[in-house]
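Workshop exercise sheet. Pairs work together: one partner reads the sequence aloud, the other fills in the structure field after running the prediction. Swap roles for the next sheet.
Pair: D.N. / O.F.
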Amino acid sequence: MPSGPAGRSTYQTIYAVVRRIPRGRVASYGQVAAVAGLGNAARQVGYALHALPAGSAVPWHRVLNARGVVSLPGHHGLTQRILLAQEGVRFDARARVDLRQFGWRPRPARRMPRQLQ
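Structure field:
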């Protein structure tokens, strides 16, 4: 795995950002990449989330594409929609989430605790 900020793996950096997304909010793959300091690496965020082990505590379901749409096909996409709906996130008739209403607006990251560096 490539190395990210503070010597952590890029995937671990992505997971740390995704863990910051609060319940009832969503972020785009590109937004997660930008907050993680990875520039325009939206696709890499998708790869990292796909690599999560089953039962992971990382709230992967809070990440959508830039149009506010679930990108996952089949039952994975349905699972994502159900999890988001349980958190109060609403989809419109075109199966989109209004990112102005439900989008995450992160505060600047505080200094990471030493054990996470």
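Discussion prompt: Strands lie at 27-28, 63-64. What would you look at next?
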